Amino acid sequence: MINAEFDENASRGQIVLKPNRSWTWRANTYLVGSLMVISGVVAGVFTVNGMWLILPFTVLEMSVLTACLYYCVRRTHTTEVLTLSKSTLVFERGVNKPTQRFDFDRYFSRFFVEAATHPWYKKRINLRCREQQFEVGSFLSNEEKDHLISQLRQMIRQLDEPWQAPVPAD
Q1: Which has fewest Cβ within 10 Å: 73, 82, 100, 115?
Q2: What is the pLDDT of residue 22?
């Protein structure tokens, strides 16, 4: 998901990037809960019949499943924010709050688009500034990346327009 806003009065633009979320957090907890109940009932039946060794493996299985699902859901809550002004470019990345923040001089910053090397792969949008390079929007689809490229071009074009003073009336 791409949300782009440009404030002409402040000469500042902001682009917020978020991955697509197929399910909500509540739906994921219902899924894990129902799988735990089903596995717990099956393991309980086997334990009552004397096959107690199944119970620790069921607990291990549910622990690994919960950890993997938590990791995947946490990745879908990653947010990247690009803030552009006439002189600076700020790149922030994080889940609930920015955990990474990079301030760049806009004059030395460039966006590079690398074409996909194979039809199955996605193109890459890289932000380079002097010695540093970051991939922007790695979680976006190719269509969303095309939209991001057009938004970046439009925003940079708006920021590079020369400021025009109002013409005095005669």
Answers
A1: 115
A2: 82
- b (16+ CB within 10 A) / e for 109-127: bebeeeeeeeeeebebbeb
3-state secondary structure (DSSP) of residue 5:
strand
How do strand 79-85 and strand 88-94 relate by DSSP bridges?
antiparallel
**Phi, psi (deg, nearest 5) at residue 10:** -95, -5
Interhelix angle for 54-75 vs 25-48, to 10°?
A: 170
Tokens standing for 156? 């940079």
pTM above 0.85, yes or no: no
**Residues 31-53, mean pLDDT to the nearest whole number:** 94
pLDDT in tens, 110-138: 999 998 888 888 899 999 988 889 899 98
Return the biggest CA–CA distance within the chain.
Answer: 100
Per the DSSP assignment, residues forming a β-bridge with 7 are: 12
Spatial distance between the Cα atoms of 53 and 55, rounded to a whole number of angstroms? 6
CA pair distance 56, 42, nearest whole angstrom: 13
